[in-house]
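User: I'm curious whether this sequence folds into something compact or stays loose and floppy. Could you predict its structure so I can see for myself?
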Amino acid sequence: MAIPKRDVLTLAIFSILSAVFFLLAFLFTVKYRGAGYGTSGNGNVGLVFVVPATVLYAATLFCVYRITKRFPIGKPTMKLSVIGLIALLIACLWGEYASIKRLLRVLGGGPGNPGSVIFRYFILNQYTNKLFFNLFTYIGGISAVCLIAIAARFVDPERPRECKRQIGE
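Assistant: Here's the prediction. I'll summarize afterward.
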């Protein structure tokens, strides 16, 4: 089963746009200058890019799922792909965890800590966009969707006939 060029082009466009908006959300997140300098009074400038980044990333993940589910792949290559995707997902989760710990330490803890510069809304805070819009979440989400799509190939009732045709049995 060939993958239509339209799907590949759509994936490329959504991937590039979502990556650009992820980068903009990351770049426009205010950096905490430290105690004694006060907090930024500019509000959450990065939030302007968060909504389009989220919508474009969801479209990217949908395209990745659709293409991965249809991608003609043999059994040995599929096993190797699953191992690689799991390793990549674990690396992204570890990187995200380390990133969260580091940023929360710099900001004085979470919103429940009285000494923290994170006030009421943890997700919408001007210093925390980097927790959600970074390379770890971008690549980790794509890896997770690829794994889900590969697993969905085994659940699909049409799979046995389709896979036999793909690998030439």
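Summary: The chain is about 65% helix and 0% strand. Residues 5-167 form one domain.
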